[in-house]
Write a structure and sequence with these properties.
Order of helices and strands: EHEEEHEHEHHEHEHEHEHEHEHHEHEHHH
Helix content: 40-55%
Number of strands: 14
Structural class: alpha/beta
Radius of gyration: 21 Å
Largest sheet: 8 strands, mixed
CATH class of the largest domain: Alpha Beta
CATH superfamily of the largest domain: Glycogen Phosphorylase B
Strand content: 15-25%
CATH topology of the largest domain: Rossmann fold
């Protein structure tokens, strides 16, 4: 680095509180351990009382957020979040230098405060978690408003690409989008995969499904309208109808705007005694839960968005050594390989049929579990490799500071 002063990195995250957002927290800790001064600006969430906190050497600046659903709800959520983020960023600048702004979408709006930061020489790193044009097409593509939203999200995405000194993406599909649709030079795009730290393996070590116990199914992740949890609930109900003597247990770890609706649906399907909504949990609590599952499910249905996205939950299932059942999505299929089963029929009936086959075939479950652990290692899915790629990006960007 060009100066004795540590470069100051400010990470902007609107989607989840931090450190609950595991990818962002891993990035922040990796940068801090490498000698950067790191500040994270993110929503407060329901679990944090303090707006300002220092944890593991990282400054956390939080703001109140009213999470909302629906098209109008996004305006209610995003406008105040963007305003609070910009105010915190300006307050930081008044206290000292800000060298790199690291914006994590969604939304694709952090190029706006990054443009302000560029006035004092800060560089922008665009960390693209979601392909928002594909997400807009998935949610609203069949309506007239959908055409306008796809155009708008493409324009915002393009602006984010153009503002960035470097673009970080989670997989090959997103890298192709950045180069092809965004016109970003391939040398300025780095694949930093969603990957859990080594402690996931340590927390899962020695844990396995209870012999003679219920058939346990695990789910980990966000519970939004596009995540397919409703399909999973319907599939478990279908599985119980097919095999009434099978004792089924479903553990759902996570939260989201659809959770209340999903709880009502589970009750209506008669599943209340067969599942637990755990909410958000830290790794120390959710890894043992999933490690005791016979199989973990990624029920994200085939959509333009899901097809190009890497489901973080799938990587974490593999890290824990659990077989994966998922629908046929390009990135998911590429990731799972022999460590799970791909369901050809993208509905609850097809999913239930595959779960029924696995419940009747313990030997296959054992083989898939071994393959899951092996797959994680063979693809190098641990955070250690992702950390190396992240730091290589920052070395390039930091070289330009002060030029």
């Amino acid at each position: 680095m060009r100066s004795a002063r540590r470069p100051h990195v400010v990470i902007l995250d609107e989607n989840l509180p931090v450190p609950l957002d595991r990818r962002v927290w891993l990035e922040a800790r990796t940068l801090a351990d490498a000698g950067y001064e790191v500040t994270v600006i993110a929503p407060r969430g329901s679990g944090a009382r303090r707006l300002v906190e220092r944890r593991d050497g990282i400054r956390l600046l939080r703001y109140p957020q009213r999470a909302a659903s629906g098209l109008a709800g996004y305006l209610v959520e995003y406008a105040p979040s963007l305003a609070f983020t910009t105010i915190w960023l300006l307050a930081l600048r008044m206290r000292g230098p800000v060298d790199i702004v690291h914006g994590c979408n969604p939304p694709d709006l952090f190029f706006l405060p990054a443009r302000i930061a560029a006035l004092w020489g800060a560089r922008y790193v665009f960390d693209q978690h979601d392909a928002n044009p594909e997400l807009a097409a998935t949610k609203w593509g069949g309506r007239r408003i959908g055409v306008l939203l796809v155009r708008l999200t493409k324009a915002l995405e393009r602006a984010s690409y153009r503002a960035a000194a470097a673009v970080i993406v989670p997989n090959d599909s997103y890298a192709h989008l950045a180069v092809g649709r965004g016109g970003v030079a391939r040398a300025d795009v780095e694949i930093v995969r969603n990957a859990p730290p080594a402690r996931f393996r340590e927390l899962a070590a020695g844990l396995e499904p209870e012999p003679g116990g219920p058939f346990r199914i695990g789910y980990l992740g966000v519970m939004g309208s596009q995540d397919g949890v409703e399909i999973l609930l319907d599939a478990v109900a279908e599985l119980r109808a097919r095999q009434p003597d099978l004792d089924v247990r479903l553990d759902l770890v996570g939260d989201g705007e659809a959770r209340t609706r999903l709880e009502r649906r589970a009750s209506g399907l008669g599943l209340s005694d067969h599942l637990v909504f755990h909410g958000y949990l830290d790794a120390e609590r959710f890894v043992p839960i999933l490690a005791r599952a016979h199989v973990c499910v990624s029920p994200d249905p085939p959509t333009p968005f899901n097809d190009v996205s890497t489901m973080t939950k799938v990587v974490e299932y593999l890290a824990i050594g659990r077989p994966v059942v998922a629908f046929d999505l390009a990135e998911t299929r590429r990731l799972i390989g022999p460590a799970g089963r791909i369901v050809a029929d993208p509905d609850s009936v097809g999913l239930a049929a595959e779960l029924a086959r696995l419940a009747d075939d313990p030997s296959s479950l054992g083989e898939l579990a071994v393959a899951a652990a092996s797959r994680f290692d063979s693809l190098g899915l641990g955070w250690e490799r992702s950390a190396e790629r992240l730091l290589s990006v920052y070395r390039r960007v930091a070289e330009d500071i002060g030029r």
